[in-house]
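Ticket #4471: structure output looks truncated?

Reporter: J.K.
Steps to reproduce: submitted the chain below (225 residues) through the standard prediction queue, then opened the result file.
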Amino acid sequence: MYLFDPLYFLFVGPFMLIAMVASARVKSTFQRFSRVGVRSGMTGAEAAAAVARSAGIAVRIEQSSGFLSDHYDPRGRVLRLSPDVYGGRSISAVAVAAHEAGHAIQDARAYAPLRLRSFMVPITQFGSTGWIWIFMAGMILSIKPLVTVGILIFGVTVVFQLVTLPVEFDASRRAKLVLVETGIVANAEEEQGVSKVLNAAAMTYVASALTSIATLLYLIMRSRD
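Returned output as attached by the reporter:
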């Protein structure tokens, strides 16, 4: 990839900007609603446990380090929440915690897109860093098969990001539904706050997928030079 190639910025630049805006928005939205408490008084950890319990599943909940480092580990069936979420009693805390519990429900229900994403993780971990060296080697040495392999490997990461979209949207859908049904979210104002937090987070995945698609198109164009 040529860092100063105008074609690269034409294809990818606008989506990189969108991704930056989406990332800033999710942080500001989380911080905004982290200052708004929920009437139920539940912490994020308690909300995640309640969401999982409502679906009849058991999941271990642990506190992790870092800001917005929340994730569900399907290998150990462990839900790890960042400090602000784990002990927070805010709209942001219960929204994020419930979303991660939504992934635990997906796992228990054998949700196909989650299974596919989990299967693709090892391949994607290599592909996300290895593809560029193969692609650049092929371009520099004028070896077309290497260029093609690099593009195909990067294409796998694009597929991974596309599969991630329904996984994330479905987890948020489950979270919103259970939060209302269980009374953790007590009124329309809190419900709207939860939606804003989760929608902002979802847009980061959309922006990332669009950036990757644009990058793939750029690579294909360059491979024809």
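Triage note (M.O.): checked the attachment and the full token line is present. The chain has one domain: 6-223.
Status: closed, working as intended.
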